[in-house]
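User: Here's a chain of 249 residues. Predict its fold as C-alpha cells.
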Amino acid sequence: MPDAIATQLPRASGQHPDIYPGSPAGVCGLFVSALQAHFLPEEISPEHPDLALPWFWDPTPTPDQDAGGAVPTDTPDTTQPARRLYIERPQEYPDARNPLPALLIGRGPISATRDSAGHRVDFVPHNDGSYHTSMLQMMLSIDCCARNMGESESLADYVFHVLLASGPAISTAFGLHTIEPPTLNTPEVLRRSGADIEAWKTTVYTQVMFQVYWRRWKLAPVLNEIRTTLNTNGTLSSLRAVLQRRSDG
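Assistant: Prediction complete.
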C-alpha cells in the first residue's frame, strides 16, 4: 500500500480517508486546496481594491444554481461583482446543479521513472515486510469552465500564470519533486444543447513529479489481525486503522 509517512506529502483538508496523501489522487487534492486558497476573497488586500479578481471561491455549500449564465458586461461607470468559482476534482462536480464558472483539477497519464536504486525491493526487518520506491511523472490538468468562451479563456490565462509564477513555491510547500512550466490549451466546447453552446472549457496542463513508496507485508499476519478486529467491532474505520498501522511500521 502507499506509504504517506515515507513520502511526507500532506493530506488535503477534508480529503476522504481512503485517499493516501502519497497517491496521485492525493496530489490532485493538494492542487485543489492550493487553488481554493488562492481564490479566497480575503487574499486581496483592502488597500488595493484594483487588484481584486473577478472570481472568488467560497467554502460554504455549493448553491443550487450557477452565477447566472453569460458574463455580465462592465460599463465605464460600474464594476460588476465578483463571480463565485467552483473548484474541485471532476469526480466531485455536481452535474445536477451544474455550477459555472468552475475549475476542475484532474490528471492524465502517469509514468514511473527509474531511480538510483534501480527499482530494488528492500527488506524492512521491523515489520517483516519490504518496500520499493520510485518517482512518478503525472500530467495534471485544470479545466477552466464557463458559459462564455471569453471568461473561460480569461480564467485559464490567470491559472496559467499562477502556476508559472508559483510553481516552485507550491512544490516546496507540498514536498513535490518538480512542477514543470504549464501549457495553455485553446478553448473547446464543453457542452452543447442542440445548435447552442452551453459551456466552454480551456485547459491548463502541467507535469508534476513526486516520490512514492510502496510497502508489502506477509499476508497471513495481516489477515489474522483484520479478522480479529472485525470480530471485535466490525467497523470500516477499524479496518483502516489496521492497514495504516501496518503501513506506518
